[in-house]
Design goal:
Length: about 150
């Protein structure tokens, strides 16, 4: 199994998760950062991004990770599946299935070629569909049609 460290980035009370990590004896492999101001550091130093949400809309963090070219592992909830196509620009696993999540992460960490390909496609997709310029380019004709209809 590849050597890895998990950074749980973000606010909220992580005390129960910290107890869980300690009980499992994996303190050295999981870091709870709390809220950070330099999120770019974590994106630039990461190999894989995880979003095992149970409930989520379209996640900005997921889109940002894809913009950074990270291979993403996400749960199969609608918000994630609207952004990630399994084995194309990320890996999609069943929600609440820890073993499937772990298997997907180990797969990506162990296969650099797959990880890089998925990350590259993720970046291309994110830029093509979700960058500010891409969204603006799609919205301008809509607004023009509305203005023309009012005339």
């Amino acid at each position: 199994m590849p050597h890895a460290r998990l950074y749980a980035v973000g606010g909220g009370d992580s005390s129960e998760w910290q107890k869980f990590v300690t009980a499992k004896g994996i303190d050295g492999t999981v870091v709870f950062t709390g809220t950070v101001k330099d999120i770019e550091r974590y994106f630039s130093e990461s190999s894989v991004f995880l979003l095992p949400s149970r409930v989520e809309g379209m996640s900005n963090a997921l889109l940002e990770a894809q913009m950074w070219g990270l291979a993403c592992v996400v749960s199969d909830i609608p918000g994630n599946k609207s952004v990630v196509t399994h084995e194309v620009n990320g890996l999609v696993v069943p929600v609440n299935q820890a073993q499937a999540l772990a298997d997907a992460v180990v797969c990506l960490l162990g296969d650099g070629e797959l990880r890089r390909r998925i990350g590259r496609v993720a970046r291309e997709t994110a830029i093509g569909k979700y960058s500010i310029q891409s969204v603006v380019d799609r919205l301008i004709p809509v607004y023009q049609d509305i203005l023309t209809a009012k005339e």
